[in-house]
Amino acid sequence: VTGQLHVLLPLDYEERKVYYLDVILKDLENEAAPNTQKTTTCNVTIFVTVTYWAPDPWFVVVLTLTGILFFSALGLLGPLEPGEAVFALLEAQEKTPEPGESENGPSAVV
């Protein structure tokens, strides 16, 4: 005797939260004398629980060139024109000062 119930298909919490079963219990240990096998019924209530983890929703924003142009056109990235904003962004990424150079160009030692 295991006392376990097995279902053929998964139970869906969103479809139904509670199942009521009428189970017929039969004494299978006494197969030699089937006339003396005892049977009875019982009611089983199954409460389905959620077993998967659903994280809180979160969003990732990837600012692509198209997105930069779009937000610049809406005025959300500053007062610059879309072409100027992209140019300034690309220039800032590509240009790094050399040693002995300031942001405005080479520095002179007097």
Index terms:
two-stranded antiparallel sheet; membrane; single chain; Cadherin-like_sf; 2 helices; 110 residues; disordered C terminus; transmembrane helix; calcium ion binding; transmembrane; alpha+beta
What separation lies between the terminal Cα atoms?
Answer: 98 Å
Query: Which blocks of ≥5 consecutive residues have pLDDT under 50?
Result: 85-95, 105-110
The count of β-strands is: 4
Biggest pleated-sheet summary: 2 strands, antiparallel
Oligomer: single chain
What is the molecular shape? rod-shaped
> What is the helix tally?
2
Radius of gyration, in Å, reads 36 Å
| Mean of residue pLDDT values | 67
Secondary-structure element order, N to C: EEHHEE
Strand order of the largest sheet: 1-2
Strand content: 15-25%
Helix content: 10-25%
Which structural class do the helices and strands define? alpha+beta
GO cellular component, one term: membrane
Keywords: Membrane, Transmembrane, Transmembrane helix
GO molecular function, one term: calcium ion binding
Transmembrane segments: 58-77
Describe the 3D structure.
The strands form two sheets. Strands 1-2 form a two-stranded antiparallel sheet. Strand 3 and strand 4 (105-106) form a beta hairpin. It is an alpha+beta fold and 110 residues long. The chain has two helices and four strands, in the order ββααββ. The chain is 21% helix and 20% strand.
